Amino acid sequence: MSNKIILERARNFYSKISERYAAEHYYERVPLNVFWREQNMPVMYDIIEGADGPEEVVHRAQQTFMFSVNVASPIKERAVDWLLEEQRSRGVDIFSLPPEIQESAYSYADNNVDRQGRRLTPDFIRTVNIGHKIGRYFKPGRRGFDILELGGGLGHLARTMKLLGHTRSHVILDLPETLVFSYCFLSLNFPGARTVLVENEDSARAITAGGYDFAFVPALFAEAITTRPYDLFVNTASLGEMPNRTIRYWMNFIQNSLTIHFIYTLNRYLNTIDPSRHAWRWEENECSVHYDRRWDFRQWELEPRFTRCPYVDTLIARYLEIAAARLKTIDAPACAQRAAELLRMVQEQDWYNVKDNSAIMMRGDHILAHDLGMDGTLFKLWNSLRLHPSADGVATLLRYLDTLLSRKDRVFEEQQFYQDLFLALFDAERDSTLQEFASQLRKRVQLQTQSPSPTLIESRDNYNFVSAGDKVIAISTALGSVHLFQDRLGEQELSPILFTGENLETVREKVRAFEKKTAVPDVELIDESGRYNVVRAGERFIAVAKELGPSNLFREQLGERELPPVLFTGESLEEVREKSMAWEATTAQPAPELLGDTAGYNLLRVEERFLAVAKSLGPTQLFVERLGKRELSPILLIADTLEEVRGKAITVELQDTRPVVELVGETVKFNLVKLGSRFVAITKSLGQVSPMVERLGERELAPLLFTGMSLEEVCEKARAYEKELSFPEVKLIEETADYNLVKAGDRFIGIAKKLGPINLFQERLGDRELPPIILIAPDVSILRQRISEHTDCPSNDGDENP
Fold first, then answer.
1. Can you tell me the distance from the alpha carbon of 200 to that of 215, in angstroms, rounded to the nearest whole number?
2. Could you give the CA distance from residue 174 to residue 600 in angstroms, rounded to a whole number?
3. 209 CA to centre of own chain
4. pLDDT by residue (tens digit) across 706-718?
5. 163: part of which helix (H) or strand (E)?
6. What's the sign of the alpha-carbon dihedral 353, 357, 362, 364?
7. Closest Cα to residue 108, out of 64, 148, 162?
8. Sign, Cα dihedral of 421, 325, 229, 21
9. Which helix or strand (DSSP H or E) is residue 716 part of?
10. What's the helix, strand, coil split of the chain in %, to 5?
């Protein structure tokens, strides 16, 4: 099958299935979490629609963290070497395996590391570790397993399992968007494989063990694949990226709908959060707590050694590895007895019985090395609650979790789940020995769920200063009315950090307007001619008079220094007036007198003549500016060729009606995100955000909102920002025939009237032409010609300073 056909089949499949998902409102019944809905989905849409082939689908995915964590930076070398050494410590030598056991030939090249002629990445080695563990715990035999994998991602693990010989058939149950990626990846790597894209329930029921190599089943059809047994169920990482409602759905599906012999999972457990910033994780914290009593554990370990790499792997979650066999029946009384026995063993341990500071200077005071495997305290408590949950067991686990934390501003993600479980069991059991613990826990829960109450301290300098808990926050009055710790990012516009609109075009227009306003083109010296340096600024060419000295084009602001003859500065009004009048004396031109106007023209008298000047020309310099020197769009257009000028003319004619067609994605500085029926542009400088979840006040959003630990710190930030943007007050003092004389702060400035309207200290040097100091042209040849004209005609164009 050609690569073109692979992508075409994937897109046709996706088009059909996505219509079913929309029609049946699947994501309302089995919702995605915010991260997948608002961040990963738009990225996948963009790749699916825009990729030129399946290789590009794979490469673009591998440049994100959607399905794995690989990096292109040199640290990947150390990560690979550490992981290889860790494998050797367990008796696994990847180089003794067949040569095809290496990273895919279709892997994004910048992620790869070469070792002894094999392509390797941290993620590939991770899949080898998982495959080796599965082979060790369950012994797939020569036939291989019939595998059902929930959330196959790009298909990395499915590929490795087949290369290791562990697979007879592999069903991937996933979102339709993600199935496009795994189908492209596995089709590229196994061009002769028997693949099935399941498009309806009947096709799902028809897939049989051994009748395919890879079957790609949308989660919508999950119930249709329960009619046959599977040797092994696998899930790695994705259950921990789902809302609790969805986690419960899938755990019920696994344990009550499927017939499986073995299970292998590697999912989040005991990751820490700051409740004031990550409270949304309370709704996504149950992926490792719903295993029922019908499991015989072969392996249970938090942070297995192969996940402890100090390079790259610290960027992903802490995982709990579980490998178990499914039991046909259970003995409920035996389960309760075993749970009580496990709890009793734990409650006899020293940490549970040694109180206060009696263990100080001993190992018992903050134990550094905990046994997080099946012989350790954590598993005994976790397993006791699995077999027969009790209020006493949950209380003991909560106390043990406190011994694992070293920071008071962090809690474990699952803590709220266990707190709610304890209170429910305590209310049912009414164990009087736990009354004090229950009272303390209720107070603790109340403190955790309370948001700090904001109190206005004062208002000044365009900011409101608010005290919130142990923080002081400065909020720009430009924000209007806000509700700190309640309003969520994305609910209102926070220009220039976050733009909102009713549709994509509105948001894109706002972003482009802001980027255009703040863009600073690269300035490159390309030539010089006499008194001028010729530079390229973006797509324009500018001639800058050498007499200006060092200049910062597009950064230096008009008014910061003297630019004769267009701008004079001085220490007094008299000094500026003298400079202005001296220049006027050398460059006097007839003075136009405005007599009146019509609808479209200004009527002027110039000495003995009368002129009618079209208002559409805008500001003009009669008898100084020469027609043809600059473009006067749409009245006068300039270009190097007939074709170019014709194109400009057509563009002007169509510019108000031309539709804008562009894929949803990103601009230089903004990510474009769809929020429900709205589109939002979020500045990339914010880093990772959670629109509609993160609340205003949780972090600094300069310059609209500053935070600090004290009023003084916040005041200092606000004043520093305002000082950076402050401009002196500009006041017109008087005028001469050709100059306006203004006072700016403690200085006086004479500004040539021919400049037209200007914004002193805001307009940037290079934004427009200031002949003869700064000349602008569309290319170098025209610019050289203009330089020559100014050099040859000093009296008309102002080449000489008075």
1. 13
2. 66
3. 41
4. 777 777 776 777 7
5. helix 156-163
6. positive
7. 64
8. positive
9. helix 711-725
10. 40, 20, 40
Written in H, E and C, the secondary structure of 322-390 is: EEEEECCCCCHHHHHHHHHHHHHHHHCCHHHHCCCCCCCCCCCCCCCCCCCCCCCHHHHHHHHHHHCCC
Q: What are phi and psi of 743, to 5 degrees?
A: -105, 125
3-state secondary structure of 314: helix
Measured CA to CA in angstroms, residue 441 lies from 276, 343, 563 at distances of: 18, 20, 71
What digits encode the pLDDT tens for the residues 47-80?
Answer: 999 999 999 999 999 999 888 888 889 999 999 9
Query: Tell me: the pLDDT tens digits for 96-120?
Result: 999 999 999 999 999 999 999 999 9
Token couple for 501: 């609109």
Helix (H) or strand (E) holding 718: helix 711-725
Half-sphere exposure (CA, 13 Å, Cβ side) for 696? 24
- Range in 266-270, 311-315, 370-374 with the lowest mean pLDDT: 311-315
Write down the residue that tokens 């089943």 correspond to. 217
**What tokens does 753 get?**
């009237």
- Maximum CA pair distance of the chain? 116
Query: Which tokens sit at 726?
Result: 């402050």
Whether 255 and 294 have beta carbons less than 8 Å apart is answered as yes
The encoded tokens of residue 783 equal 């610019």
DSSP string across 5-16: HHHHHHHHHHHH
Amino acid letter for position 683:
T
pTM exceeds 0.85, yes or no: no
| Residues 4-13 pLDDT 10s | 999 999 999 9
> What is the gyration radius of the CA atoms in the chain, in angstroms?
35
